[in-house]
Amino acid sequence: MKDYIQIGIEKGIISFNDDMSRITYIYQNKHRNYNNPEEKVQAEAFLRLIIDYKYPINRIKLFVAVPMGSETKEADIVVFKDDLCLMPYILVECKKQEVSEAEFQQAIGQAYSYAFAMAGELKYVWVTSGIKSDYFEVDQNSNTRNQLPDIPQFGVTNIATYKYVYDAKYLPEESGKQRFFDLSVIDQSELTRRFKQAHEALWAGGQLNPSEAFDELDKLIFCKIWDERKPRKMGEPYDFQIITVPKEIEKNENKRRLIENDNLYNRIMALYEEGRKKDQEVFRDNIRLTPEKIRTVVSYLESVNLGETDLDSKGRAFETFMGSFFRGNFGQYFTPREIVKFIVDVLPIEHDSKVLDTSCGSGGFLLYALNKIRNKASEIYPNYAKDVRQHDRWFKYWHDFAEKNLYGIEISEQISRAAKMNMIIHDDGHTNVITSDGLISDETIITKTNNQGFKYETFDFIITNPPFGSTIRQTEQAYFKTYQLGKKEEDWLAVKSSSEQYRDGQSTEILFIEQDYKFLKEGGYLAIVIPDGILTNSSMQYVRTQIEDWFRIVAVISMPQTAFMANGAGVKSSVLFLRKWTKKESDQLINTKKNIESRLLTDNNYQTQRLNWDKEIKQKQKEKVTEIKDKQNISATSAKQTEEYKSWNADLLAEYGDKVEELKSFLTDKYQQAKKKELTDYPIFMAIAENIGYDATGKKTAINELDIIGEELQRFITTIE
Fold first, then answer.
1. Do residue 153 and residue 185 come from a single domain?
2. pTM for the complete prediction?
């Protein structure tokens, strides 16, 4: 992307004061407030007229007075045909980047009023917000306009019907002939604005709700990417652009626009169908926009080169746009990238690793895994950009990983589509992202999606942030009874064994721990964000015990309270790193625990003691009933109903209850001591992160302790491999 401001400074066309708050247009010696958003657009348009369109600076005037009846208005920029600046030729109207589509259309009307009010035969109008431009040929005599793909460059009289072609920079320049343009690489902030403005333009009129507009914009971005990937000869025009109809073919302005819209619609539909044939799972339904709405979106994106925009910038732009749209209702789908980066960076993911996110949301974890492997490919093949053989190997290294080894499950169809689009924008990795309940069995997933990759015990890494706070009810989902953590835990200190019992419900984050265990192969890693309650609440001990039986606990990283506040969640959380035991290791661990329990029960005559206490209680209860019965001359049943008996019995049960709890506590302590002694001890990496690179609002901060913690944890994991 050209930095027009920097070029303007270097060429001595403009200058700034020390704090860049004021711009000086040197030729006209005019000083303006550069903090004004419109001024920034105006400065760039002015420089483009000189740099790209080759107009002499002496023929360009800024802030030109335009008499309009009793008032005098000011045109932003006027280009003149003559050196004396007496014959206006092009009028430029500038608006700030954030201007709405409705305001942009008003600006067009404003520009026309200026054009028709100016003396002379002004011929062209350019209306721009920096991220959107419309160009017109005007006829002051007939008060008509004709939309063009561009304004003419200096010395050009005939304008082509399109503006953007493949490899325009290599086309020879011919005097008097219109020069075409390449697509431009733009920065993240501008791309984000273009996405947002296009989205707003789709729903602001009321024909679509914001959610529908998001889906439709996704489809058109897909078409844009597909158009850029199509093979083209040098100089061949892109399909994803507005191509005008000459007024010589159709004189009526309204009819011309209808023809242009229909032609654009057909080109876009052809792109969409072509793309869908290659990947039918990306978008299943048709584009539902009118030709006019398609034209509106195209006007925001036609000049942009998405393919060559660096991955991080376009990824951040799309994610920022998604975040601004979904945050209200779907904030849980967006794990802060600082946490995502931390988790992915520390894990030993390789290009042949099979990676899954069972609650993938917008695909953040999968994208970072892909970028990690792409960066490794660039390290292995550093000359891939110049060496054809290296390029082929570089591409295969990361692309095979993206296509065959990345898997994601997302329950929301809309978010799932957004995740696929996010992956496509990053060049690939969407193939195995599916819409499904992440808690159903692997067989059910395979049956529903026909994707054989979702098999239990096949994944090397699972990286995920499951939804917190939701509860799956036993009565609602048949799969509930397949979960060990859906059952009530067995009490080894219970006197009588009971039949298998199920909980009424279970939180989703707990069930996902078990589901992830099922998907992992032996030795595979699980990195999961969980609420701290699972680690600290006494009622969650059974979950911790089960985790201990299934996994080697690698690390526990405590996050600050503010970690997810910007996404609408204030739950204190931690990142848990786990490594799945082999079956042999797990069985050995469980058997050792059961042996300890059995030995303690036997050595302490637990069952006998409890039975003896039960007998003592019953004997004392019998004697007390007899005493009251004889004293009051009432039946045994009536004696049990007296306040005297009830009070006495409550005291008796409390006394023996204390004895039972004391014995249980004694045995529990003995159990913990025996575990420490008999179970294989291993180190666990633990850390508390207080500053993680952003605050409660999501604003970036200077300190990110996850960087240091990540380096240490990475080294620790290396030692246990």
1. no
2. 0.78
